[in-house]
Amino acid sequence: MTEPLLAAVDLHKTFGPTPALDGAGLRIWPGEVVAVMGPSGSGKSTLLHCLAGIIRPDSGTVSYQGTPLSTLSDVDRSELRRTEFGFVFQFGQLVPELTALENVALPLRLGGVRRREAESRAMEWLARLEVADVADKRPGETSGGQGQRVAVARALVTSPKVVFADEPTGALDSLNGERVMRLLVAAAKDTNAAVVLVTHEVRVAAYSDREVVVRDGKSTQVELVR
Amino acid sequence: MSIGLTLLGLLETGPRHGYDLKRAYDEHFGQDRPLHYGQVYSTLSRLLRDGLVEVDGVEAGEGPERKRYAITASGVTDVRDWLVTPERPEPYLHSTLYTKVVLALMSGRSAQEVLDVQRGAHLETMRALTRRKLTGDLADQLICDHALFHLEADLRWLELTAARLDQLSEEVRR
Amino acid sequence: MTVLRLRPRRRTWQWWIDLTLGVRLAVGGGRAGWGRLALTAIGVGLGVAVLLTATSVSHMLQARDDHGYGRAVPVSGNSAKVAGVDPVYAAMRSSEFDGSELDGVIVQKTGPKAPLPPGVDRLPNVGEILLSPALRQLLNSPAGELLRPRFPERVIGTVSEAGLTGPHELFFYVGVAKVAGQSGAAEVYEFGRPSEPRTLDGLLWLLIALGSAALLMPVVVFVATSTRLAAAARDRRLAALRLVGADGKQVRRIAAGEAFVGALVGLAVGVALFALGRAIVPLIDAKALRGGIFATDIRPEWTLAALIVVVVPVLAVVIAVFSLRRVMIEPLGVVRRARNQRRRLWWRLVPPVAGIALLASQRGRLGDALNQSSQLPVLAGIVLVLCSVPLVLPWLVERVVATLGGGSPAWQLAIRRLQLDSGTPARVVGGVAVVLVGGIALQTLLVQASTRYEPPGEKPPPVSVSMPAVALSQALALDGALRNVPATESVTPSITMLMKKVGGSEVTALHVGTCADLRQLTTIDQCHDGDVFVSAKPYSGAFIPAAGERVSFFANDPRQPVSVDWTMPAEVKATTALTTDMGLVYATPGALAGVTAAVADANAYLQPKANDANYVEYVRNALEPFGWSANAFSPTNAISSTFELIARVLLIGSVITLLLAAASLLVVALEQIRERRRALAVLAANGVRRSVLARSLLWQTAVPIAMAVIVALVVGVALGGMVLTVSNQPIVFDWATIALFVATAVIAVLASTACTLPALWRAANAEGLRDE
């Protein structure tokens, strides 16, 4: 068996008096889509944030390609987020002042790519996500579904190895939600990116290859007896 | 829905008389269709024959009502296997699922396990449906959507029921 | 375990990309973004304009002086002879009309090739006059009716701007028959005097320093506030950037780029404002401006201006980046940070303590003379004390608000909101507080530095007339002319002459007057015209010529070496002086009949019957026959006019800054309402009456402003007191004006709060419940 791409072991994290994570863990292999399910308040978003290196767990380790994230500096972790990871959240992650095209080009620009090249690559991804027509509009001027697809484009523009999606269709209706999931999974498969999909909806989880249940800060992988 | 396994599950909580069993079944599961005494006793004799229950004691008097039945070790195994084995995902599973959840709680198990296991099975089916939807034509998509929605409905009801019953688990366990 | 190999970090142009990204964020924000940019630009612009003005003040004053030097009549001796030029006898004359200065030069030409002062094509002959444009306009207007009797000459031309100190100056050149021999007259071959650098006395400099600092502080606070405007939106924006992979330093660079744009635009706005002011100022004809200010005279000190252009954007950027430190942009935004980060007090006390120490160490040093070494510590002390207000206020508000509770729902809403975030309102209200402090300290300084004249009792103030260094015959004629002034109750003349012993150096003064006049000065018993009296009890060392002794009358002015000899009469009576002036010899006109050409100084006091503002003009018109050698003045506030000019400018500036502070309050309040739109709409939908919301908004503003006013009063009074000790003045406070300032500030704040009510009404509609 190959090494896991991203591995979290025995994570504990407390915010104030409430423990959000109580020994949860997860392993992601390259190219697979994993659904992280559980009731609200179960800690699944916190698990995702720890996996992505956005917050540090109180104890436990998260390793990416074998390297523990705690050993990386802020600069390195930022670089990791920029190049190896992609993020699609439920809402509020696009920069409202920039146009859709600029938003998608942003990770490239932050990495030093020249504007013209960054925007042409961004345009390709916008086309792939079927939102090329809103390239010049600001996020506030687009519909929910379009905005989420722009976010997916931004997540994928740097060809990341892992895409973290936290309730990506939570604010969308069924048709738009399905469109986003379809395009996200297809694009991820094309680029062999793993997807960590946090959701509480089964129909969204149906796009995954396997699911992990998080409850009360602990995670369980359900093995079905076949 | 398997009456035998339900009765086994009820017996797991402790030995009962026949009439006790019927009463318990009616109370928890028999709102629509109460159980006949005849059904009870014929099921009990089958279970006895299969070695899943045994006679614990006998009251003075005539007739099958006087016997007290207790579950055997293999009966316990069967109940456990039944609880941890998901039902085949299909619509209108609610009575079986409900029974399972109640029995799990009665025997001190967590309803969440039943839920998780069932969800896993449902998801497998839903994954197949989703894959079919991605490559199919419009008719395929409509059919798959329909099935997906119903499967989701079952699961959501199951989640809610499990949560509700967890809260009431004190009352259920007797 | 494979080693994580990340792509190598960027090249140097990454900095450039980050900054341009910041610029893009600042510029591309749509309407809200433009609004923020405009606010920052206005704040920075005002600050730049204030700074540029402050650096122009000294140059402006010096330029005005230089204009005066350019046309001056040489003072000591005569100007060097120039061949081929027919010299002109000229003397400067100062007068007044209706509170405005009225100056001119009396000239007597000796030949056709006369030297020309700047702005003059041809000097006037006898009976001709050249007027400045403003004087010409005044004489032609109804307001100049009282002035016309003084100008009977024929107008032959105009003095152009090159020869004036200000665009609205009242100035003239008039041809007079005999100038040589008059007081102040000189033989001029060339007009003009080398210019001398103006020295500010300590008090004046203090005023400028205090005023500039007081005006700048609110601007700094405003800039800081506006760069933090829409903080929540900015934090979300920067958090999104962090999520996408910008590291901490990059985010700071981007924020710096954002702030830089605002600062640059602000710089442009500031320079434009300054240029606008420069164009407008010459049009202002206020008495306090003493003839107005030429636009070309308003020039900032170039080195300082360059410094301003560099420092201001840098400062704006530093403030913006510094304000990020507390926020600690994490990719999730500012959520979930423990709220126990209470403000600490100790470092906030450092500036005020240091400022007080600095000012205390300089006490008394800047009295009248400008002690060079004291300038910097005093300025630093003032700035530090002013800084302390916006630093201490947030801490104070936080602590006080934490102890409040209970009350009506409106109060509760307000207090809880303040407890959640007391920083923003405290900071904004701090701007108003600093203006208050500055205003109070300035007013304290102004009150002390101006000495007011209080007329004794109910009588209207007398007018004093002086006619120095004229012939005795002229001096004697003055009394007669003055008695013709209408509505006069009494005239008290006084003529003095200087006499020295012939062949010696002892000097004494002689009073000339009729018997009636002399009886007011001495205890004379019998008196006839022709009598001479001497003091019976002279002070030790006094020189009293004996009867029959030869003395010589001379003039005080070295340009008039004329002296006339006289003999004390044979019979001299003794008397005692009633007043304590240096008079020791008293003579009636008859005794001096033969020496009417001797030089005398004539003075007189006229008591008007009623309090008439135009009375002094009647007196001046009555002096017209004496040419321009006599002056009349009504005693008013004896304030240095430069002082008054600067004081007026500073007070106007304070008003503007107060408006600015109130405007920033308005803007912040509007922004907060916008941010809380949803919460407000929910409250309203739940049935909370709008009046309750409005009252809660009022309390939200009133509590911080009350604290700010208290702090400002304390600090303002303390600063004013300290500055007074530095300049060696007694400590007296003008409580009435201070109360006025406080009331104005409070009203400004409440008014700006009231202006946010429409926005509150709109937000509290169910409209706010819609998703955007």
Folded structure, characterized:
The complex is a heterotrimer of chains A (226), B (174) and C (772). Chain A has helices at 44-51, 74-83, 100-110, 115-128, 144-156, 174-190, 202-205, and strands spanning 6-15, 18-28, 33-37, 59-64, 67-68, 85-88, 162-166, 194-198, 210-215, 218-221. By secondary structure, chain A is of the alpha/beta class. Chain A has a single domain (6-221), classed as Rossmann fold (3-Layer(aba) Sandwich). A six-stranded mixed sheet of chain A has the order 6-7-8-3-9-10, sandwiched between helices. In chain A, strand 9 and strand 10 (218-221) form a beta hairpin. In chain A, helix 3 (100-110) packs parallel to helix 5 (144-156), helix 4 (115-128) crosses helix 5 (144-156) and helix 5 runs parallel beside helix 6 (174-190). Chain B has eight helices and three strands. Chain B has two domains: 1-84, Arc Repressor Mutant, subunit A; 86-174. Chain B has helices spanning 3-12, 18-29, 37-49, 73-84, 94-106, 111-135, 138-167, 169-172; strands spanning 16-17, 53-58, 67-71. Chain B is 68% helix and 7% strand. A three-stranded antiparallel sheet of chain B has the order 1-3-2. The relative contact order of chain B is 0.13. Chain C folds into four domains: 14-72 and 199-337, no CATH class; 76-188, no CATH class; 343-451 and 642-772, no CATH class; 463-633, no CATH class. Chain C is 49% helix and 13% strand. In chain C, strands 7, 8, 9, 10, 11, 12, 13, 14, 15 and 16 form a ten-stranded mixed sheet that branches. Chain C has a six-stranded mixed sheet with strand order 4-3-5-2-1-6. The chains are: A alpha/beta (226), B mainly alpha (174), C alpha+beta (772). Chains in contact: A-B, A-C. The interface between A and C is large, with 42 and 40 residues. Chain B: InterPro entries: Tscrpt_reg_PadR_N, WH-like_DNA-bd_sf, WH_DNA-bd_sf. Chain B: It holds the Pfam family PadR. Chain B: It comes from Kutzneria chonburiensis. Chain B: Residues 7-77 form the Transcription regulator PadR N-terminal domain. Chain B: This is PadR family transcriptional regulator.
